[in-house]
Amino acid sequence: MHHSNIIHSMRNQFRRLAISTLLSKAVNLQRSSAQTVRGKGKLLNALLIPDSGVVQIQGMDTRDPENHATICTQIGMIFQRPQDQIVATTVEEDVAFGSGNLGLTADEIRGSVAFALSTSGLTTYRSKPSYLLSADEIQRLASAGVLAMRPLCLIFD
Fold first, then answer.
1. Which helix (H) or strand (E) covers residue 112, if one does?
2. d(Cα 25, Cα 56) in Å, to the nearest integer?
């Protein structure tokens, strides 16, 4: 294996380990060792409620409906089909949609949108119609929409 490939592989493993460690500190998932957990991402952001066991996000039980709104703002989720998350006709409007639903001020929304577009490499696509984006750009747009909401954690389904 080439030297740069080894370093790249090590960086990816470190990132996965760091994310796993950060996530394990924020999430407490109790289950029996024989139990298989399906839909883990949806369990973590309270889209699914566990049939048994307990899922807690920063001490909040996902089974308690009073916690759902708060949990959903802390755990951002990119669905397996990111095109299903696109809700607006332009890139900028789509990225702003989630932040607008959080009750942020116009200035806060603009700042979040600028941050998310820059982070996802979509700044130059700001006014482009979302239906004209490539598959890669749609993935980045879905990610930007979630990033604009500034969650503590991102989960890719």
1. helix 106-120
2. 11
| Rounded distance between C-alpha atoms, residue 108 and residue 136, angstroms | 27
Look up residue 132 and give its amino acid: L
- Candidates 82, 76, 85; CA nearest to 44 is 76
Q: 91, 125 in Cβ contact below 8 A?
A: yes
Question: Any idea where the domains of the chain sit in the sequence?
Answer: 3-78, 82-151
Mean pLDDT, residues 74-92 = 88
pLDDT tens-digit readout, 135-153: 999 999 999 999 999 988 7
pTM passes above 0.70 = no
pLDDT in tens, 21-58: 444 444 444 444 434 444 445 545 555 566 667 777 77
